[in-house]
Amino acid sequence: MQIKTSEPLTRAQHSMWVGHQHHGSLPFHTAEWLVIEGPLNRELFHQAVTATLTEAKALHWRVVERNGKFYRQDDVPVREPDFIDLSALNEVALNQWLEQHVMPAFDPVQGHLYDYTFVHLDQQRYGMFLRAHHVALDGYAYGLLINRFIDYYQALCHQVDLKNKPFDHYSKFLAEEQQYLDSAQAEADLIFWKQNFSGELAPKKRLKRSLKEPFTQGYRFEDVIDLTTQQQLNTLASELKLPSAMIVMAVFMAYMIKQEDHHQQCFGIPLLSRLGTSALRIPCLTMNIIPLRLDTTGSENLSEIVALLATRFTQIRPYQRCYFEQLRFVLEDFQPFENILFGPVVNWIPFPLPEHFEGCQLKKTTISAGPIEDFDMAISNKLVDGQERLYLAIDGHPELYTVQSLEHYWHDVMAMLKHWLDQPSLCLKDLNIRVPLPK
Where does the Condensation domain lie (predicted)? Predict the structure, then answer.
């Protein structure tokens, strides 16, 4: 089955394509680095990756323009892998290689939407570098692909059937999206956002025009939350009947409210808009980031600030399918080319990958998560020695931050989190930050 070439780009694809035309390819590069240690059958693994990418139809298309409108044409073949031996590189040099190989431009018009490289690192130690234009994949889609690699590999190793169903075809999602756009719910969603984010409630943050590249790739510092703090988070989460990641998100938002001294600040929340759609089984781009205003008074203690965030999620979640790029042009008293719909993006990736498969250990590191305007964060659930742990990542614009400065902010956020966990009755207004953000 082929996607009709007369079908226009989806809302998410069109947004990324327009951004690509304005800002170039680089801001929209995403990349994941997998390290596999153990007795990997490289030939079978290569077959598994090829089979997965062949099955992922939403990766193989190109942008076609007709009469000023943009369409997909899915006649692009599966890309061939690259192979390289980097066993002579130390850790610093290897990280430099990864950063450099994020950079080469993609070409959606030619259908060049992704690349992948198999890397020899040492005896029984291998790497896979997978990068893609954001128009093709989002973070959830990478997880789908990696799990499917493993599914195919295990089936090939044991000569058995695959455990999971194949990916759904992209055309199923296209039909579902059009059905939503034609529905009364789409209009109701738009009304909700206009009522709650227009006029005096319109986001006021402005794009930093003084930057040479206001919209570009950022730096990242990521580390695991220490075990003692994780256990405190788990205890409080159990009491509140909420995920422990929700506590970290709430504390980060409180931290940013203290940084900006702005209780009405809007945060960007990437929500899993795949729920209830066939895109749950399609590696593609469906990402939607919607604004969330925590709207604190400063008098909330830790449990209250977390409960407040949970309430805000409950309020906005029914309207999450309204696409954020559309909102920019319909909110009253919002300047779409000067104002920013939301400040820091606060992301949670709750789906940990397997730590082991077929006698091998797997470790994934996000090298590039796409464009950044200022200062963002992401929380990921990952398995460490069989135990699920939270990793906190801080991303920053390269003209405003360095990896070293992001590390300082990471520790400052953690200091506030630990202090509040130790003294949960303290109010937000009683907490302090130590490392102010650049103005």
Answer: 7-433
